[in-house]
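Predict structure. Chain length: 135.
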Amino acid sequence: MEAPQEQKNRWWSLADRIGALASFLCAIHCAALPFVLALLPLLGLGFLADHGFERGFVMFASALALVTLVSAYRHHRQPLPLLLALPGLALLITGVTFAENYSIALHSVMVTCGGLLVAAAHFINLRKHRAVHAH
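Prediction complete.
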């Protein structure tokens, strides 16, 4: 049976992996959306173009990022993941709340860059977490 600390570490690692995947998928979604907008309804994926779905996805990814990255910072005391995630989250949230009213290009660039920054923060956080536990 695993020790409670090992179970906790495994859970945080899984949460980081889910966060990285969600952020990366968000970035791909936002980068590709202008090009595939007309095809989504034909594929039965019209909901992916809905602003409500996008906002909900960004809020989920943001909450997951904050919880996992702040918790990990308390453990390994390495600020780089948070320094990447905070501007990424700001870009994501600004992109889905304000920029979508201006232009699809601005919206897409902001949320794509934000998603990539948050995904990078999760990946770096995973490496920092492994480095602490390897020693």
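Summary: The chain has a mean pLDDT of 78.
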